[in-house]
Amino acid sequence: MVAVARLLHSPVKGLALAECEALELGPEGAPFDRRFFVVTAAGELAGSWSHGRLCLTTADYDGITLTMRFPDGAVVSAPDPSLGEALDLIWDSDEPETAHLVDGPWAEPLSAVLGEPVRLARIREGRGGWSSNAVSLIGETSIAALGHGEIGDRRFRMTMTLSGGEAFVEDTWIGHDIAIGDAVLAVRLPCERCVATTRDPATGEKDVPTLRAMKAVRGRPDLGVYCDVVTPGMVRLGDEVRVLGPSA
Questions:
Q1: Which of 63, 85, 89, 242 could form a disulfide with 179 if both were Cys (CB 3.0 to 4.6 A apart)?
Q2: Which of 109, 129, 107 is nearest to 119 (CA)?
Q3: Distance (Å, rounded) from C-alpha 92 to C-alpha 227?
Q4: Residues 166 and 150 in one domain
Q5: Of 123, 152, 185, which residue is a domain's last?
Q6: Residue 142 is part of a domain; what is its CATH number?
Q7: 85-119: pLDDT as tens digits
Q8: Do 172 and 237 lie in a common domain?
Q9: pLDDT-based confidence at 143, cuts 50/70/90?
């Protein structure tokens, strides 16, 4: 049986991922997942591939208040930030996106953590800040097949980690609908990987040559799959993955 082993999300792209026992998946994926992100002074997207120290900060967002906890112990919280200057930038899937800078007290402590001036921004309404599709899945056996031992799943920054099944079983679901808990997902395409996966998710430092391992084992630098939400619903730890058939 293939089942949900871990559920992860963060309201700010690149920050440490929070673990939970259940997620209510909608068209935009997990609630408020990657609603906010960090941009450099040059207006470029700052992610875990380029700014590993982002993982030293955690964030919570309930739709009203955004709270960040910084590595020095500081906690900065403020109401839903107002939209500021519009930004047109190339997203990490190489697609152009429109976003807005947001006002609030987070820029200064984030800049201190990263060692350079940065600002907080918000993605447009109707789209989460995920790389390609609203939900992503990866198998524990697929990670183990890379041959680097217990490197953990957090470095891959997926919505769900799955236990059970053969290595790369999720690849066989591409083009099919799957049911997990109350939700139905359409599995669309493989997750193309970047240097973010080479970083220790606890420190942000590069520690494992995951990209070379993927190329050696799979012939290409991808691992896991991206999905769209066909039927919204609750997904819980332990829910079984059921393959329904080809996607419409």
A1: 242
A2: 107
A3: 17
A4: yes
A5: 123
A6: 2.40.33.20
A7: 888 877 766 677 788 899 889 999 999 999 999 99
A8: yes
A9: very high
Residues 159 and 197 in one domain: yes
CA distances, 6 to each of 63, 75, 235 (Å): 23, 26, 11
One-letter amino acid for residue 140 of the chain? E
Residue numbers of the domain that contains 208: 3-28+132-246
What are the φ and ψ backbone dihedral angles of 202, each rounded to 5 degrees? -90, -30
What residues contact 175, with CB distance under 8 A and at least 6 apart? 187, 246, 247
Strand-pair category, 160-163 with 135-139 = parallel
Closest CA to 116 of 103, 129, 107, 128: 107
Do 24 and 138 share a structural domain?
Answer: yes
Q: Pull the structure tokens for residue 237.
A: 């730890």
List Cβ neighbours of 172 (8 Å cut-off, separation of 6 or more). Answer: none
Four-residue CA torsion sign, 66, 121, 53, 74: negative
Model pTM?
0.92
State how far the Cα of 29 lies from the Cα of 52, in Å rounded to an integer. Answer: 24
pLDDT (tens digit per residue) in 56-81 = 999 999 989 999 999 999 999 999 77
Same-domain status, 205 and 100: no
Q: How far apart are CA 235 and CA 4, in angstroms?
A: 8
